[in-house]
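Notebook p. 47: complex prediction with zinc ion.
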Amino acid sequence: MPSATKYSEYLPERPLVGYGMDQPDPHWPGGAKIAVSFVINWEEGGERNILEGDSGSETFIIEHLTRPSRIGGRDDMTESEFEYGGRAGLPRLMRLFKKYNFKSTIYTVAAALERAPYLGPMLVAQGHEIASHGDRWINSMAMSPEEEEEHMHQAIDRLQKYTGDPNVPRGWMIGRRSNASPRLYCRAAKERGLEFLYSSDSYGDDLPYWLESPLASEGEPDEGMLVIPYSLDCNDFRFVVPGSGWSSGEDFYNHLVDTFDVLYEEGLEGRAKMMSVGLHNRCVGRPGRLAAVEKFMQYISTKEGVWVARRDEIARHWREKFPYTVERCQGRML
Ligand SMILES: [Zn+2]
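Predicted complex, structure tokens below:
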């Protein structure tokens, strides 16, 4: 095992085989045929802005797709799109989730929560999971590992302060991560005495899977790192990417339903899966897009054996049914 420091890049061998043809039955609670994880990305206020010391304005996941960054200046056209997400989008999404009594995992950018602190305790009280989506919504590759580590601790501080829950976060998804990110958040969680349930920095499967802990190569005991994979295809951000995006709510809805149907069928055959649905306040929180999410919620509400679960619940289930072993890390389940 090569020795590493906490600042080293985390580059495990690529897990290209996984479960192969022996896909395990995840034994979802209640014999469910599918686990559906709704994820709300809460990023508004954590994006690039010269007020935060960045070089220019944000350009990622906005309506005006080709708008360049305004270097050295504020761009209130883009800024106000982000404002919409926090002001109108998130409250609208919350009302929708309440209507269906579905709980989500909220990928929470700590700076976003700090700017709308009234939402923290409310989201926790409504049963949503507060997971970490970084301290700010910026590209971690532009940071040094030392700086990134500082950001992770600050993310923990802010999430705890503004939710009032000293045990958050239990899951991490940085997204635009550096090659050191998973090692750094494993380490930060450990140093802070937090339960580290999962990483969602992967799109690599339709089931949770184990990797060796990034801390093992630092000489720590290998407790494994559970991956709860996320999805960029069942994701509303494709409304606002050039080229291959959704042009209407129908597109998004149809893709969600097709995905659900295929996975549900596999569940009926004894190879149940999980489905991730990625949502953004400023994107699908727009009324013309929200309709697709509501129609999808209605659709899955008509089916038997659907477990709408938070990612921490899926992680706890997996840890109980399939605790970490080196064999499982290599995709073998027995
Ligand atoms: Zn995100």
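Notes: The longest helix spans residues 76-100. Residues 10 and 180 are 5 Å apart (CA to CA).
Next step: compare against the earlier run before touching the bench.
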